[in-house]
């Protein structure tokens, strides 16, 4: 009885191997093509920073820090437009009365290809940076790294 089980197991193994070997007999050629969007939007963002609130020792240092802060704020706004914004909320209720309400937002992403359009001070206390992100440029950068494809045709031999 034991030899019958061994022979059955051996036959099943051989038949499984022979079936999997048949799948290699069919060969195919796949043609790929690139996917390109119909239109490319241009995104704009504006970042603001107070000059007097910066931690520099001189007016010049505070101005430079405000320039950097306004640029980062503009990049944050671009990231929100491209990737969206994550919102976390929490609400505490006791005796059917709202006790505490909290909202927290965050954004995370990589922005490549943005250009500084304009950077300037408004009055003596606010610095502004305007950015532009041409999605055509972003797509070109993406093509150089990811090389996206889709199946154009499949030929079996």
TrEMBL record:
<keyword id="KW-0966">Cell projection</keyword>
<keyword id="KW-0282">Flagellum</keyword>
<keyword id="KW-0969">Cilium</keyword>
<protein>
    <submittedName>
        <fullName>Flagellar biosynthesis protein FlgP</fullName>
    </submittedName>
</protein>
<feature type="domain" description="Lipoprotein LPP20-like">
    <location>
        <begin position="56"/>
        <end position="134"/>
    </location>
</feature>
<dbReference type="Pfam" id="PF02169">
    <property type="entry name" value="LPP20"/>
</dbReference>
<dbReference type="InterPro" id="IPR024952">
    <property type="entry name" value="LPP20-like_dom"/>
</dbReference>
<keyword id="KW-0732">Signal</keyword>
<dbReference type="InterPro" id="IPR007293">
    <property type="entry name" value="FlgP"/>
</dbReference>
<feature type="signal peptide">
    <location>
        <begin position="1"/>
        <end position="20"/>
    </location>
</feature>
